[in-house]
Write a structure and sequence with these properties.
306 residues, mainly alpha, Gyrase A, domain 2, Multidrug efflux transporter AcrB transmembrane fold, 9 helices, 62% helix
Length: 306
């Protein structure tokens, strides 16, 4: 179906298949022999008559056109309706679900409670396993949460972001991603201590290896979030936006807060001495004896008699 403009105005042209052209020629040939309004035929779409043109002659050749008092918009509308009506589609309503504002609020509240429980479990694990180091991780989580809240508050009105259940799910997933970055760094430091090194050089030696692992892991998470945000619509974009934002902030916090804070804490006696509650106790970690440099024996001095 096409809407085209001729000297007489806008018209809608139709083209039929071979079988349809023969049937249309027979029908229009029969209608052309009759007087108005018996020479009209109705075009029905969804049980409604969308057009009822009259026929003045038999239309053979598989082509026809509908003319009248059309403008470009009305001709396009009729062409669209005729094209859509040609599709062999039918729709059936299987179910209707209505979500009230109260139900949406309950779901969001349940998501926030689940997030709080997940955060509490992560904090409990850090306290039990990493002891003193856990306070560095918890401080980093708080900084990340504060930055996330501020950025969402600032960007929300600009991009139409709203805190809904999928967005909360993205934040819950981000808790694990952020905690994983701390664990990678802490375990690298503890590996260095197991090799017999003291804390300060252990932190500096562990950071380059931990940094590469953190960047690769966060890049994969950010890439997944970016793809979701581009190819999806609606609430799923809220999940992708939250996940991507918190992943970027994880890199910022680890590089600009966690690493400098651990370097500073390594100078404190509580951590540097390997206190049993610091999470860096060499005995508890099964450290090797401290590394010592061995001096090569000096060569004997030879003297000559004058």
């Amino acid at each position: 179906m096409l809407n085209t403009q001729t000297g007489a105005g806008w018209v809608v042209t139709m083209k039929f298949t071979d079988g349809g052209a023969k049937k249309f020629a027979d029908i229009t040939g029969e209608l052309a022999t009759k007087q108005s309004p018996q020479n009209q035929f109705a075009i029905v779409l969804d049980n409604e008559v969308v057009s009822d043109p009259y026929v003045s002659q038999a239309l053979t050749g598989g082509n026809a056109e509908i003319s009248g008092n059309f403008n470009q918009q009305s001709a396009q509308e009729l062409a669209n309706m005729l094209s859509y009506g040609a599709l062999p589609l039918s729709f059936r309503e299987d179910s209707v679900t209505t979500v009230t504002a109260a139900l949406g609020g309950e779901q969001l509240r349940a998501g926030l409670i689940a997030g709080a429980i997940g955060l509490a479990l992560v904090v409990l694990y850090l306290l039990v396993y990493y002891r003193g180091l856990s306070f560095i991780a918890i401080a980093s989580l708080l900084v990340s949460a504060a930055l996330t809240y501020v950025i969402m508050s600032l960007l929300g009105p600009a991009i139409g972001f709203a805190l809904n259940l999928p967005a909360v799910c993205g934040a819950i997933v981000a808790i694990g991603i952020t905690a994983d970055s701390f664990i990678v760094f802490f375990e690298r430091v503890r590996d260095e201590i197991r090799e017999g090194r003291t804390l300060r050089p252990s932190v500096e030696r562990a950071w380059p290896r931990a940094r590469r692992t953190i960047l690769v892991s966060d890049f994969v998470s950010f890439l997944a979030a970016a793809v979701l945000f581009v190819v999806t619509v609606g609430k799923v974009q809220g999940f992708a936006f939250t996940l991507g934002l918190t992943t970027v902030l994880d890199v910022v916090v680890v590089f600009l807060f966690t690493k400098p804070l651990l370097t500073l804490m390594a100078r404190r006696k509580f951590f540097s001495s390997g206190h049993k509650w610091s999470g860096l106790d060499p005995k508890a970690l099964g450290a090797k004896p401290p590394l010592r440099r061995t001096r090569r024996p000096s060569a004997p001095v030879q003297t000559k008699e004058a």
